[in-house]
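Standup notes
- DV: blocked on the single-chain target, sequence here:
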Amino acid sequence: MNSSEPTLQNLLDLSGKVAIVTGASGWLGAAMSRALAEAGATLVVTSRDAQHAAEFVATLPGSGHVGMALQQDDEAAIPSFVAQVVEQLGRVDVLVNNAYGGTAPSIETATAADFDKAYHTGVTAYFLLAREVARHLRSRGAPGSIINIASMYGVVASYPDAYTDLPINSPPVYHGLKGGLVHLTRHLAAYWAADNIRVNAISPGPFPSQSVQDRLPDFIARLEQKVPMGRMGKPHELKGLVVLLASDAGSYITGQNILVDGGWTAW
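- DV (later): unblocked, structure below
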């Protein structure tokens, strides 16, 4: 081996890096946050409620992590939020756009207001946060990684028969915004590559929350029939990918939407 070639361990090491994770305490966000902390990053995690963010930070491995309130539907709050992170921690290297605050209407009941709310929290705010982080990275002349959490439902439609006669649906606002987010990821990646700022998306497949699994076993059984691997995803199965994309191990990966779906979109 070339003695100057970095080891995999070194490539995956995020020590000294600062990562912002929005929606960090959720079903998938918590696992991704722990992964980044386990890899050595200092985390800034957000919630609408500062106390909730602080309580979640206390559960993370490592030290120096910060919990902060962020209202993603307040456009004016985003630049000041990033500036506050830089002032407090000196830098930002990684952004994981994960928060979501949309409603869940059916195709028959969705309103323009439902779409506006979903798009603002799930696309517009993602873009505004990414742009502020990119501006900071350019000001430092530093490389960085922006990771947008999309969905397989930004790539394929859902199966109507998976939802028929059950108290759960597949909201059109969610499909629309996740599809837009996947393409926005590609667009930003192309424009920011010259600055060595990588932009990628992770699209989880069926990762229903524990409460959904407990309440709706028939729904889970229907979903399992759609997955070649025959089971639901587990949050920890996103940990390796988020560290790969955040670290130097993924330094030549940009503009990609990587599906983690148990094979759902393979057939």
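- Follow-up: The longest helix spans residues 112-140.
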